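To: structure desk
From: M.T.
Subject: fold request, one chain
Message: Could you run this one when you get a chance? Sequence is below, nothing fancy, just the single chain.
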Amino acid sequence: QVQLVESGGGSVQPGGSLRLSCAASGFRLDFYAVGWFRQAPGKEREGVSCISSGISSNDGSAWYAESVKGRFTISRDDAKSTVYLQMNSLKPEDTAIYYCATECSGLGWWGKGTQVTVSS
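Reply: Done. Structure tokens follow.
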């Protein structure tokens, strides 16, 4: 059974940090690029970051939305079938449900999301 499970969300004050995890099961995660997406209340879902597949010639290459560049870092540990999103210097506008999905386009499998709330 294919499954992606996000964890690590929570409530944090502005300037704080969180690390999200995306744990995969039921398939070979290293075959796939993995993206993080988010959706804030009343807004459309947007791409946050994406990392190339573990077997790609661009192994480890990453893309970031302008709004998170320099603050967020995506990484992967294919031995643990897990992709991470380290989020530093969090801002209130980062508040959203964060999802991981296979493929940077988001046209693959999706997790159910984890809530991130940044508030003082």
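Reply (cont.): The beta strands are 3-7, 10-12, 18-25, 34-39, 46-51, 62-64, 72-77, 82-87, 96-102, 114-118. Let me know if you need anything else for the meeting.
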